[in-house]
Write a structure and sequence with these properties.
Radius of gyration: 19 Å
Structural class: alpha/beta
Order of helices and strands: EHEHEHEHEHEHEHEHEHHEHH
Distance between the termini: 54 Å
Mean pLDDT: 93
Number of helices: 12
Number of strands: 10
């Protein structure tokens, strides 16, 4: 039996055929099961890539303190890998994130400082505070948004895995943007292998990426989103390499309905960033037409979001109501194709 430790178990996740979305679009749509990484999300790849890059550059060694501002999943990867390698991990997390994530990070041994949400580059923004603390304390600031080792981890692992798992027959890839690393790394790799591969993206309300991809100007839209881990207001080092052919802005209600639809139709319990990714996959499939093979990212499990995404009281407080009914989901997506 092959013996694998935590670190060597990161990556090589399977593709899951999504029968319902495939039958609706006439395409083959697959979700890459990143929730099966040992830390539970796609961010394990970036966390490992950034830590190993810092090690190679001599920026950290056992006993070093790593500081990062994170919505949760990158922090989980950093905390667990930090435990293995002997680093102390301190994380700045906005209070808008689920309590499950915050409790999980503390349970893993990370020092967690929870701060009120503030837009970037407000001095009270969690990323700004993380950078300042790292400088004051002489710690290493991971800076996942500007750290190019983030997208290179996906260029070297996620992209090649998708290409090999589809035997080089992938026609499209679709996902949203958090730090930008996944979309940048995968789109770069797939476009290099086949320039005809189409890349789709969706952006939640309040984020600037849709405007950037469609007009070249990162203009923040009005409103806020409950979707954790995606959406940003600045063009970073991990956004600039993204190769995007199609972009849409999708509201929280539609993303929410997608995750509830998928758990009912596919039996896969997901967070809202995965729901956004699957909205992107559906829109790309409908744009390209039947007979194409598409891949998206199933970022993490819904277990971290039970108190929010799967909590009717929380959703009601935000003016939302979850529905798994196709008639509440797909007409809204189809209208985006007509706009």
């Amino acid at each position: 039996m092959e013996k694998k430790d935590f670190i060597s178990s990161i990556g090589n996740t399977p593709l899951i055929y999504l029968k319902s979305l495939s039958s609706l679009t006439g395409c083959e749509i697959y979700g890459k099961a990143e929730f099966m990484n040992p830390g539970g999300s796609v961010k394990d790849r970036a966390a490992l890539g950034m830590i190993e890059d810092a090690e190679k550059k001599g920026l950290i060694r056992p006993g070093s303190v790593i500081i990062e501002g994170t919505a949760g999943n990158t922090g989980i990867g950093l905390a667990l890998i930090g435990n293995i390698k002997g680093y102390k991990v301190k994380l700045l997390v906005p209070s808008s994130q689920s309590q499950e994530k915050i409790d999980t990070l503390r349970g893993m041994g990370a020092e967690v400082l929870v701060v009120p949400p503030a837009p970037y580059p407000d001095p009270k923004n969690y990323r700004i505070i993380a950078a300042r603390l790292a400088e004051e304390e002489g710690a290493y600031y991971i800076n996942q948004f500007e750290n190019e080792a983030n997208y290179l981890a996906h260029y070297r692992t996620t992209g090649p895995e998708i290409w090999n798992q589809t035997d080089g027959t992938v026609d499209g890839f679709a996902c949203a943007i958090g730090s930008g690393g996944t979309l940048a790394g995968v789109s770069m790799y797939l476009k290099e292998k086949n320039p005809s591969v189409k890349i789709g993206c969706v952006d939640p309300v309040g984020s600037a990426m849709h405007a950037y991809f469609t007009s070249g100007v990162a203009e923040v839209s009005a409103g806020e989103s409950i979707t954790e881990g995606i959406g940003q207001g600045a063009v970073t080092a991990n956004v600039r390499p993204c190769r995007v052919d199609l972009s849409h802005r999708v509201d929280d209600q539609t993303i929410l309905n997608m995750v509830h639809y998928i758990v009912q139709k596919e039996g896969i319990f997901l967070g809202t960033s995965s729901g956004a990714n699957l909205c992107a996959a559906y829109l790309l499939a409908k744009t390209l037409g039947p007979g194409k093979r598409l891949v998206s990212i199933l970022c993490d499990s819904g277990q971290k979001y039970v108190s929010k995404v799967y909590n009717p009281d929380f959703l009601s407080s935000k003016g939302l109501r979850a529905s798994s009914r196709p008639e509440d989901l797909f007409p809204a997506l189809d209208r985006l194709l007509q706009s």
